[in-house]
C-alpha cells in the first residue's frame, strides 16, 4: 500500500500551535521508512494521522491513491504496534493474535478453524510456534513484542505502522528482532513506517530516513545520502557524533579559529565570512608535525582503544578534546600521546545551520 501525505497541518487541540506544519511525504508500496527526530518533533502525531487515529486540519492523506475509507476498512488494512500497546493479559497469546479477526462482524469473520490456522501460521512466522496457549505474563519482552506484531499482522494489513515497537528491549534482542522484521517486511511485501529513537536502527533497517524537527520534515533521504549530504547542521549532529569547528572563509580558504587545525581549501562558491565545519570522527585525519615543520605541534593525542572496527582517539586542543578514529586495519600508526595537526578538510560547511559547502 502506498502512502501520500500532502501539506498536512495539525494543530494542538484548542490552540494555534502546529504539531504538524505542512508535512508532505510520499511512501511507495513496499518501502521501509524510518521516522526519526528529537522528542516532540511530531513523529507520533504524523503516524497517528496516517493511521487515521487523529484528524488533521489541512492537507491530504491518500492510501493507494485514495482518501481513507471507513475506520473498519482502515483497521483491516493497517497494522499498528505502539510502544505501550500492551497485550490483553487475561487472554492467551492465541486469543490476543486472533483478536482483530474475532471482532469482525459475522459475515466477514473467517471460520474458527481458519482463524486457528491463521494464528498458528503467525506463531510460526514469529518463531514462537508453541506459545499459543501461554498467557502474556509468561513471555519474555522480545516474545511479547513478537506477539504484538503478530496481532497487528493477523488481519493481513498492507501497511505496518510501528511506533518505537522495540523500545523496551535490551540491545541484543532488539538487534535480532530488527533483522527479523526487515526480512518479514520483505517476505510479506509490506509497506512499513517505523518511528525510532535509535539512529543506528534506522540506518540498518530502513531504505529511507525521514528526519523531523518542530513538526516539519527537515530531510528525507536514503541513509547513505543523509550521512553524505546532511542539509542542516541539526541533521548532521542528529545522525551521529559530529565534531564542529568554527572558523572564517577568506580567499576560498577555511581558516579554523582554534590552534592545531590545518586551514583547507573550500569551493569558490562559498562566500567569505564566518563558517562552521562539521565532520565525522572517522573523517578527521592526523598530520604529523614534520609535515608542517613551520609550526609547532599544537595538540596531543590520547588513544582510547579499539571498538567497532576503529581505533579511537581524542585530540587535545587548547580548550577541548575532539574525538577522531581510524580504521583498525590501517597501517597508519598513531602513537599514544603523539602530537600533530588535525586535517578537517573533509568537513561539510554550514552557515546559520544550513549547508553551504
Ligand atoms: N493532544 C495534544 N495536545 C497538545 N499537544 C500535543 C498533543 N499531542 C501531542 N502534542 C505535542 O505535540 C508535539 C509532538 O508530539 P509527538 O508525540 O508527535 O512527538 P514525537 O516526535 O513522537 O516525540 P517522542 O519521540 O517523544 O515520542 C509535542 O510537543 C507534544 O507535546
Summarize the structure.
The chain has two domains: 3-237, Rossmann fold, CATH 3.40.50; 241-355, no CATH class. Helices cover 25% and strands 32% of the residues. It has helices at 43-51, 71-77, 93-102, 112-125, 141-153, 171-188, 199-205, 223-228, 233-238; strands spanning 3-11, 18-27, 32-36, 58-63, 66-67, 78-82, 159-163, 191-195, 208-213, 216-221, 244-250, 253-256, 264-265, 273-278, 285-287, 299-307, 310-316, 321-327, 339-343, 348-351, 354-355.
How would you explain this protein's 3D organization?
The chain has 357 residues and is an alpha+beta fold. The chain has 9 helices and 21 strands. The strands form 4 sheets. It has a 6-stranded mixed sheet, with helices on both faces. It has a 6-stranded antiparallel sheet with strand order 13-12-11-14-20-21, with no helix packed on it. A 5-stranded antiparallel sheet has the order 15-19-16-17-18, with no helix packed on it. It starts with a strand and ends with a strand. Adenosine-5'-triphosphate (ATP) binds next to helix 1.
